[in-house]
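FORM 12-B: Structure-to-Sequence Request
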């Protein structure tokens, strides 16, 4: 496995890093709250083909690999870009994978940016899919209802959910207006694979969150002084930041390995995606906590950027489930479902 980036991938990273640096400053992130969506940024991303790049060429896309998408997600996480990149990419890939006439009808407007389609990652309970990413601002959501994968128009079928991370999350009601895209075991397997991809790409975004939070923390402890010396010289601080740096490097490697496995080792890809998600969440959680903690009381002030990263890391990861459920998913992928 060679994880060195190609020249094209380095150009991809540079392009999105430059865009986010210009269009997703901390001020823009704050201005996009509380719904966590910047329409001007989204328009720029559509011009770059951020959704189309995720889909294979036969379905009308550009054919980017999952590793390419993970690299973009990391840059999004570094700047907390308030746009539903991961959800719309994965939903478009699922529509292409289903390949039914209904799915192919829906994918055209999604790739063209005419309709924003997102993905429900939680199961439906009593006709409601809870905490659907981007559902507060999207036009449609792909949801599993029983043995069917359906497309739900969100107008009139969503209830926005306020959250500390300022994400555009909503509960979605599956009503009679839903369009059946596919049904049966193959449809459910395609949706499950899409959830794996969402976890993998969200892991990449969480790596970006944790990496940038660590940089913010390091910059602060090099400037803040106590007893006449920078507080970063104290072992109680420097060792913990070093632990976070190591964990983030490991999380990045695991996310890249999971993306590589999607093509090279598909049997292990679902397991690695869940592992990457769980570990990236822990790395981002600890990095944002430590950086905020070492800011002292300033860390909780809205004027300091670190609180944005602290809130986003926790909210983003919990859109799927509480952390213990992710480790159960790893075990299920590795050993089979309990009692199965």
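FORM 12-B RESPONSE
SEQUENCE OUT:
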């Amino acid at each position: 496995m060679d994880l060195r980036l190609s020249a094209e991938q380095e150009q991809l990273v540079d392009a999105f890093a430059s865009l986010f640096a210009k269009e997703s400053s901390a001020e823009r992130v704050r201005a996009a709250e509380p719904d966590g969506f910047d329409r001007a940024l989204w328009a720029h991303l559509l011009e770059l083909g951020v959704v189309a790049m995720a889909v294979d060429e036969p379905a009308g896309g550009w054919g980017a690999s999952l590793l390419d998408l993970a690299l973009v997600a990391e840059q999004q996480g570094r700047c907390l870009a308030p746009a539903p990149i991961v959800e719309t990419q994965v939903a478009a890939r699922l529509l292409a994978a289903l390949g039914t006439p209904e799915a192919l009808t829906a994918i055209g407007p999604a790739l063209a940016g005419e309709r924003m389609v997102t993905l429900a990652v939680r199961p439906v309970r009593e006709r409601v899919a809870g905490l659907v990413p981007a559902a507060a601002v999207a036009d449609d959501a792909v949801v599993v209802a029983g043995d069917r994968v359906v497309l739900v128009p969100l107008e009139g079928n969503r209830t926005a959910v306020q959250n500390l991370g300022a994400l555009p999350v909503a509960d979605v009601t599956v009503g009679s207006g839903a369009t059946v895209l596919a049904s049966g075991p193959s449809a459910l397997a395609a949706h499950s694979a899409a959830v794996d991809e969402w976890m993998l790409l969200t892991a990449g975004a969480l790596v970006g969150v944790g990496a940038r939070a660590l940089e913010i923390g390091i910059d602060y402890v090099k400037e803040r002084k106590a007893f006449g010396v920078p507080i970063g010289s104290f072992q109680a601080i420097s060792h913990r930041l070093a632990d976070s740096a190591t964990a983030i490097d490991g999380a990045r490697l695991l996310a890249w390995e999971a993306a590589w496995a999607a093509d090279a080792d598909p049997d292990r890809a679902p397991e690695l995606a869940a592992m990457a998600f769980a570990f990236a969440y822990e790395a981002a959680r600890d990095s944002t906590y430590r950086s905020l903690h070492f800011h002292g009381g300033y860390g909780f002030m809205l004027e300091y950027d670190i609180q944005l990263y602290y809130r986003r890391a926790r909210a983003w990861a919990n859109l799927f489930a509480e952390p213990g459920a992710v480790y159960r998913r790893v075990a299920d992928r590795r050993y089979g479902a309990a009692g199965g």
